[in-house]
């Protein structure tokens, strides 16, 4: 009978240990999920920041070409032609 009680006590102790570990893992999992979400948001903000900087860089290249920089004159002409075509489309849509 004593042997059965020892086995039951051992099982109870192991079960309590498992439950404690389970709770700790649940907490750690929640913390990791929150950290993951935060990192995803930081990546998205970084990507938006990169897009904004790239846009500013393109605008700066166009401005430099207009001012007289010999670099990217062809690119600037293409950009201006694209803008003119877009303006023409807008005018056409307004006149309809």
Describe the structure.
Residues 1-49 form a coiled coil. It comes from Aureibaculum marinum. This is Cell division protein ZapB. Keywords: Coiled coil. With 96 residues, the protein is mainly α. It has a domain at 1-67. Helices cover 93% and strands 0% of the residues. It is built from two helices and no strands. The protein has helices spanning 2-67, 73-95. Helix 1 packs across helix 2 (73-95). The relative contact order is 0.04. The mean pLDDT is 88.
Distance between the amino and carboxyl termini: 97 Å
- SS class: mainly alpha
Number of helices, where a helix is a run of at least 4 consecutive DSSP H or I residues:
2
Biggest sheet record: none
The pLDDT mean sits at: 88
Round the Cα radius of gyration to an integer and report it. Answer: 33 Å
User: Order of SSEs, N→C?
Assistant: HH
The portion of residues forming beta strands comes to under 5%
Oligomer: single chain
How many strands appear in the DSSP assignment? 0
Q: Which runs of at least 5 residues are low in confidence (pLDDT < 50)?
A: none
Range of helix content:
over 70%
Q: Which shape, going by the Cα principal axes?
A: rod-shaped
